[in-house]
């Protein structure tokens, strides 16, 4: 494995956390390059500049998953990392726990909050 995927992660992003868990649980930590930024820090603008010409829309997580192949979809990145480790996302129990638990709750709360705000408007 000479090519190392580069993974761009935004601090505190719940979608990026999926990818972080997948990196740890697949044991690929030494086989990927992680570029993490905190919104507003010195790194962010450079990462966005790198990604903008490669993606239809910049969002995080994003990855150069194969040479020249960029994706910005957390499930796609997780599936690609799992495959690289000879696994599927279903083989990663901590990831499953996060997706069914805290991640699902966050998505529900986000949706519910949006609906309540609409009702108040
Ligand atoms: N469907 C996307 C959603 C990712 C997403 O919404 N990420 C947010 C951060 S939590 C984002 O990139 N926002 C736009 C930005 O920061 O430019 C995925 O699963 O990767």
Instruction: Return the string of H and E elements.
Output: EHEHEEHH
Q: What strand line-up does the widest sheet have?
A: 2-1-3-4
- Name the hetero compounds present: glutathione
Give a quick account of the main beta sheet: strands, pairing sense, barrel closure: 4 strands, mixed
Whole-number count of domains: 1
| Highest CATH level, the class | Alpha Beta
CATH superfamily: Glutaredoxin
Shape annotation = globular
Mean pLDDT: 97
Strand fraction: 5-15%
Low-confidence stretches: none
Rg on CA atoms, Å: 16 Å
Task: Describe, in plain words, how this protein is organized in 3D.
The chain is globular and about 55 Å long. Helix 1 runs parallel beside helix 3 (74-84) and helix 1 (14-26) runs antiparallel to helix 4 (93-120). It has a 4-stranded mixed sheet with strand order 2-1-3-4, with helices on both faces. It has helices at residues 14-26, 44-51, 74-84, 93-120; strands at residues 6-10, 33-37, 62-66, 69-71. The model has no long low-confidence stretch (mean pLDDT 97). The chain has 121 residues and is of the alpha+beta class. The structure holds glutathione (GSH). Glutathione binds next to loops.
Task: Provide a short characterization of the protein structure.
This protein has about 120 residues and is an alpha+beta fold.
């Amino acid at each position: 494995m000479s090519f190392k995927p580069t993974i761009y992660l935004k601090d505190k992003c719940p979608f990026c956390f999926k990818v972080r868990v997948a990196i740890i649980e697949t044991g690929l930590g030494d086989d990927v390059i992680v570029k993490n930024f905190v919104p507003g820090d010195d790194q962010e603008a450079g990462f966005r500049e790198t990604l903008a010409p490669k993606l239809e829309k910049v969002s995080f997580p994003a990855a150069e998953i194969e040479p020249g192949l960029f994706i910005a979809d957390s499930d796609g990145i997780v599936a690609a990392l799992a495959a690289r480790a000879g696994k599927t996302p279903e083989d990663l129990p901590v990831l499953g726990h996060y997706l069914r638990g805290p991640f699902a709750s966050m998505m529900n709360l986000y949706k519910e909050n949006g609906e309540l705000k609409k009702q108040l408007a």
